[in-house]
Write a structure and sequence with these properties.
Helix content: 40-55%
Structural class: alpha/beta
Distance between the termini: 61 Å
Number of strands: 5
Radius of gyration: 19 Å
Bound molecules: CO-5-methoxybenzimidazolylcobamide
Number of helices: 9
Largest sheet: 5 strands, parallel
Length: 230
């Protein structure tokens, strides 16, 4: 028999982190069965905001650490892809409520930023976070989505020649595609600035492939763009 989970914690951020880690999206979602009829990441993130918890705290103290735990459990084979996917869906359901706060940073746009997860790679949580934070920093963001190849990046740059480009990759295999895209962009738009990031990416790799900057996290990306226009 599956025992119903009674939250042992009274802190809303702990509850939210628990929901993300467990893949509990919202009250009506049937997964996981032992959390049936309980609030999920959707309701708890909304409630946290209503209670005055800062969006940054929701992100940094609940959502990001929860996803890091999911990653560690996956590495140790304690959970598998379906659980990881449910956790990602739960995180995205919380992000829906945070997005307006990150987007309301400034009204006057500082410039354009094209972002995409490189070809072969479907991970978009980190990319979406970076996009949201940059939008909150006052930039117009053109989000090309996931599995984005060279042609799509070049087309977006043709249409927005002054834009800064951001490439995200989460797999060691797709990092190679990052290199191809950087080379193609630099050939056609030599003045374009390219920012790269993602869990397996390093500053050393950035220098090796000729990108302009490596940011380990969204704030690093925001800071880089800020100093480009200051
Ligand atoms: Co995937 N996956 N996954 N996965 N997945 C990883 C990345 C992995 C490390 C898990 C592991 O083995 N421990 C591993 C990669 C191993 C490697 O290559 N080194 C892995 C694997 C193997 C796979 C599959 C191949 C699994 C399979 O099918 N056997 C498969 C690949 C699919 C594909 O892309 N073609 C796969 C699939 C999936 C899901 C679809 C189930 C899901 C993605 C859902 C989605 O994104 N919509 C998923 C998830 C959720 C993960 C983990 C658990 C979490 C990733 C995540 O969202 N993290 C991840 C393990 C981990 O990271 N520990 C894992 C939270 C996010 C906030 O962090 O994306 O790193 P991150 O972004 C950070 C920074 O990197 C940075 O800012 C963000 C915030 O700090 N950043 C940038 C990111 N992009 C940036 C761009 C910038 C600047 C900073 O400038 C432009």
């Amino acid at each position: 028999m599956i025992n119903e989970i009674i939250f042992p914690m009274d802190n809303i951020l702990e509850k939210l982190a628990y929901c993300v880690e467990s893949g509990k999206i919202n009250k009506t979602s049937p997964y996981p069965p032992n959390m049936k009829d309980q609030d999920g990441a959707d309701e708890l993130s909304k409630q946290a905001l209503e209670e005055g918890v800062k969006p940054d705290d929701i992100l940094e103290k609940a959502l990001i650490p929860a996803m890091a735990n999911v990653g560690n459990k996956f590495s140790k084979k304690e959970i598998y892809v379906p659980q990881m996917l449910m956790a990602a869906k739960a995180m995205n359901s919380a992000m829906v409520h945070l997005k307006p706060f990150f987007q309301s940073g400034e009204t006057k746009r500082k410039g354009k930023f094209i972002i995409g997860t490189v070809s072969g790679d479907l991970h978009d949580i980190g990319k979406n976070l970076v996009a949201m934070m940059i939008e909150g920093g006052g930039w117009e963001v053109i989000d090309l989505g996931v599995d984005v190849g060279t042609e799509k990046f070049l087309k977006a740059l043709d249409e927005n020649p002054s834009a800064v480009v951001g490439l995200s990759a989460l797999l060691t295999t797709t990092m190679e595609n990052m290199k191809k895209i950087v080379i193609a962009i630099k050939e056609k738009h030599s003045d374009s600035k390219i920012l790269i990031g993602g869990a397996p990416v390093t500053n050393e790799y950035c220098m090796k492939i000729g990108a302009d900057f490596y940011a380990p996290d969204p704030q690093g990306a925001v800071n880089y763009l800020k100093q480009l226009v200051s």
